[in-house]
Specification:
Structural class: mainly alpha
Distance between the termini: 47 Å
Largest sheet: none
CATH superfamily: MetI-like
Radius of gyration: 25 Å
Shape: elongated
Oligomer: single chain
Length: about 300
C-alpha cells in the first residue's frame, strides 16, 4: 500500500511538473501559428532582415568608397551609369552612402533601446514587485522625465552634452529608460498578486527566485514587444538629432545627417534628396508593423 501511494504521488508530481512546460509550448506554438497567418508582419520582417544583411555586408557589397568624392561628378541623378542612385553634394556614391549610413542609423536606433530595456526593465520590475517606498521613489523620479516631451528632452540632453554618436546614444537612452520603467512596472504590478505568485511565496521561495522563475517569464513578452516599437522612434529621433547637428558629424554617413547635407539640392535633384528619408520611413514603418504583429500574436486572448 505504501509503495502504491508513493508511485501515485510520484506520478502526480511528474504530471504537475509537465503541465507548465506543456502550457508554455502550447503558447509559443500559438504565437508561431498567429504570426504565420499575418503576411504583412512576415513581409516587414523579411524586408528588415534583407536590409540588415545589406548594411552589415556594406564593406563587401558597396560599389565605392563612402568618403571618396569628386566635385566633377556631384549631384548626378538617379540612374546615372555607374551610379545607380546618383551622387551626393560632394560627388560620393549615394548607394554606398545609404548602405553605410544604415549601419549608424540602425546602431543609434537599436542600442539606446537595448540599454533602456536592460536598465528600465530592471528598475520597473523592481518597482512593481517591491511596491511601497521603493515603488514610490522609482516612479516619482520617472514622472520627472515624463514632464518633458521626448523630442525636446533628447534635444536638450544632446545640446548640453555636445554633438557626437556617444552623446546622442546617451541622450536617447535617458529618454527611453523612463518609458521602459513605466511599462515594466505596470506589467509586474498586474501579476504580482496572482495566485501562482502567492503559492510561490507560501512555499518559502525567496524574492529573487520568484522574480526569476515566475514573474520574469510572464512580463518579458510585453516589455520586449514595447521595446520593439521604440526602435522606430529611436531611429527617427537619432536622425533628427543628426539633422540638427547634434548627432553624427561629417564625414560619417548617417541617414539623418544625409538629409541635412542634401537639403540645399532639393530643387536641383529632389528625388536624390528624398532617398535617406525614404530609408528612414520604410524602416520605421516596418518596425512598427512588426511590433503590432508581435503584440497581436502574443496576446493570449486571440
Amino acid at each position: 500500500m505504501t509503495n502504491a501511494t508513493m508511485k501515485l504521488a510520484a506520478a502526480a508530481s511528474h504530471t504537475l511538473s509537465e503541465k507548465p512546460l506543456q502550457r508554455q509550448e502550447s503558447y509559443w506554438q500559438g504565437v508561431r501559428q498567429r504570426l504565420s497567418q499575418d503576411p504583412l508582419t512576415i513581409a516587414c520582417g523579411v524586408i528588415l532582415l534583407l536590409l540588415l544583411v545589406a548594411i552589415v555586408a556594406a564593406p563587401w557589397v558597396a560599389p565605392a568608397d563612402p568618403l571618396q568624392g569628386s566635385m566633377l561628378r556631384r549631384l548626378k541623378p538617379v540612374g546615372t551609369p555607374g551610379y545607380l542612385l546618383g551622387t551626393d553634394e560632394l560627388g560620393r556614391d549615394m548607394l554606398t552612402r545609404l548602405l553605410y549610413g544604415g549601419r549608424l542609423s540602425w546602431f543609434l536606433g537599436i542600442t539606446p533601446v537595448l540599454i533602456a530595456l536592460a536598465i528600465g526593465g530592471s528598475l520597473g520590475i523592481l518597482a512593481g514587485f517591491a511596491g511601497g517606498a521603493t515603488n514610490m521613489l522609482i516612479m516619482r523620479t520617472t514622472d520627472v522625465f515624463y514632464a518633458f516631451p521626448s523630442v525636446l528632452l533628447a534635444v536638450a540632453i544632446s545640446g548640453a552634452l555636445g554633438p557626437g554618436i556617444a552623446n546622442a546614444m546617451l541622450a536617447l537612452s535617458l529618454v527611453f529608460i523612463p518609458q521602459m520603467i513605466r511599462i515594466a512596472e505596470s506589467t509586474t504590478t498586474a501579476v504580482r498578486n496572482l495566485d501562482y505568485i502567492e503559492s510561490a511565496r507560501a512555499s518559502g521561495a525567496n524574492a529573487l527566485t520568484i522574480v526569476r522563475v515566475h514573474v520574469l517569464p510572464n512580463v518579458l513578452a510585453p516589455i520586449v514587444v514595447y521595446a520593439t516599437s521604440l526602435i522606430s522612434v529611436s531611429m527617427i529621433l537619432a536622425s533628427g538629432l543628426s539633422f540638427l547637428g547634434l548627432g553624427t558629424r561629417p564625414p560619417d554617413a548617417e541617414w539623418g545627417l544625409m538629409l541635412n547635407t542634401l537639403r540645399t539640392a532639393i530643387y536641383d535633384q529632389p528625388l536624390l534628396t528624398m532617398l535617406p528619408g525614404i530609408c528612414i520611413f520604410m524602416t520605421s514603418i516596418c518596425f512598427n508593423v512588426l511590433s503590432d504583429g508581435l503584440r497581436s500574436a502574443m496576446d493570449v486572448k486571440n
